Amino acid sequence: MYRINSDELQIIDKIIQDEIVHYADLSRVTGKSRKTIAKYLDHISSEVKNFNVELVRKRNVGIYFEGDIQSLPKMVHRANDAGTGITKDERVITILSQLLSEPKEKSIQQLCDELFVSRGTLENDLKKVKQFLKNEEARLVSNYQGIRLEASERVKRRLMSDLISLYWGNSASIQYKRKNLVIPKDLPADIQKLLDQTILDKVSCVLEKFEQDCGFYLNDYEYQSLCIHLVIAIERINNNEVLKSVDSDKDLEPETKELVKLLEQEFKIELPIDENRYIDIHIMAAKEGSSTSGNEGNLENKVSENELFEFLAKNIVSHDEVLIRNLTLHLIPALKRLSLGLKLSNPYSNEIKRYFPYAYNQAADLGIKIFREFNIKLNEDELAYITLHLQACLERSGTKPQAVIVCSTGMGTARLIEQRIKNRFADRLEINRVTSLQSLKRVPITEDIVISTINISDLSVPVIVVPPFLDQKSLDKIDQKIDQLNGKSKHGQEFMNLIDKSVIIIDNAESSKKAAINKLAVLLEKKGYANQGIGTAAIEREELASTQIDQVAVPHAPLSFVNHPCIGIYINKKGVKWGESNVNLIFFLAMNKEIKPEVDRIYEYFNEILEDQELLKQLISCRSSSEVVCKLGGAKNE
């Protein structure tokens, strides 16, 4: 089977997700031209036949799959994975996994052969590996023999745990009968090599006995984290790879002593004191977390009096009680865990940054305040989790249009329509009820829109007539109506009002992150949009929480530095050094409370820009500020 490339996998996933798509949808996802997409579709069509699936392309209907669709994505990804590791991210994980388990240098040519890539492609992959390692006290070292990973035993184990947790969390959930814990079969082969199923079986039995004997409950995350650590630790100890001192004279927790005793009995080994102390960190983190578990009613009373609760209520401008309570519950164990050197991986950090930039910026600002108050630095993964809490609050506080669904062919069809609408518009439209035509006429209509399979006249609200199978044309009509109900400008005028041609820089000279931000800051200050010091504040914030999303960065500074809202734009075709990689496009967000009424529409339009890979390429190639404005103004497809 010829390999399906990463763009083709994106297309397959998009068709499965949306059921029916068009060329414009696939162009937005991949950033490719219609001609290239047609070529990809030809290849996909021939390949999916191997899985009893047919790719259908019908004029005026769309592009969709027919056949055994449910098993298609897993089979396609697995077929590719068994071959070469297809995507860049998968190759990066493969390289890192191999270097972690390989004590000596790995030949560059050997890596190229195993991954079926050119030397140039591998060099780009290695840049991604370096980026992954940048905050891990680890580095790649190369010589004439090849390349190896240089890191302490503690860091190596943490990296192993992170990789395993990253994939395990996506592959399987831990069952209540934890002694039957099994390494997921769809874990990448190189990561599976980091774990030993026999040791895992014994460790899970020990942990189950430990919980019973000590009355000490570990939640799923704590159990998985400790279990993975112990499996790695015991295998490394058997290979004479032990931890060095953590320089602590503190006595071990009673629960730690009991767990160590059980482990030594089971594995017939004596754990060094430094290994005991590292286990102790997991136990202390779990004990801190357990103080926030249990009876929910008592918990809310405890949390409401908590220092962190008060801190969050004071430092998050727009919030509700649910946000402060839930965020407090999340942060109490998280901050304790971070203070002890344990961190939580988030496999969706980049996606969260991409799809919720406004909430992520709020999370980054909060992270800075937490660092100043508690001297605990939140990494990007932790900030991404906080982003989800903030985004949920934003959506709770938003007033989404409401709809009523009317169907003449029975409630089964109506529920199907309801589900498809929820899948497509869950964040923008609320289905208030599903009803019959007779019931609709008996009860006053309080909703903003009626979605019906039959034509209904003389209603006080708009009616969108759709077929029972809800085709793409119908979805587009609903999409347009939601925009109208939200009062959105056809061309994202709220966003464009923040663009000033005089604060757009097109620079072809070599530049650094600091220099690029300062160039925009100078213009913002000169034009009266910002106060002096906005550049320094933005750079400091960027050091604590990077806003880079692939080739784009979105720095910003606290509201106090902004006189009037504006978005400065910096474009550099050669690329600006941003950590371990480059960015070509910088949007400097100088925002304040003036934009609050339009903030949702501004960021929704901005999201569309960030997701449109073809548009981003065009912006990077612009030669004048006028051309940039023209491209941005036409970002939304009509």
Describe this structure in words.
This protein has helices at residues 6-18, 23-30, 34-48, 72-83, 88-101, 108-115, 119-133, 153-171, 189-192, 197-214, 220-238, 254-267, 273-290, 296-304, 307-315, 321-339, 349-355, 357-374, 380-397, 411-425, 437-442, 472-485, 493-496, 513-526, 534-544, 599-611, 613-620, 625-633; strands spanning 53-58, 62-67, 139-143, 146-150, 402-406, 430-435, 449-452, 463-465, 499-506, 552-553, 566-578, 581-590. The chain has 638 residues and is an alpha/beta fold. Strands 6-5-7-8 form a four-stranded parallel sheet. A four-stranded mixed sheet has the order 9-11-12-10. Strands 1-2 form a two-stranded antiparallel ribbon. Strand 1 (53-58) and strand 2 (62-67) form a beta hairpin. Helix 1 crosses helix 2 (23-30), helix 1 (6-18) packs across helix 3 and helix 15 crosses helix 16. The longest helix is centred in the N-terminal third of the chain and has 19 residues, at 153-171. The radius of gyration is 27 Å and the shape is globular. The two termini are 39 Å apart.
What proportion of the residues is helical, as a percent range? 55-70%
The largest pleated sheet is described as: 4 strands, parallel
Q: What is the 3D form? A: globular
Total number of beta strands: 12
Mean pLDDT metric: 79
Strand order of the largest sheet: 6-5-7-8
Number of helical segments with 4 or more residues: 28
State the end-to-end distance.
39 Å
Radius of gyration: 27 Å
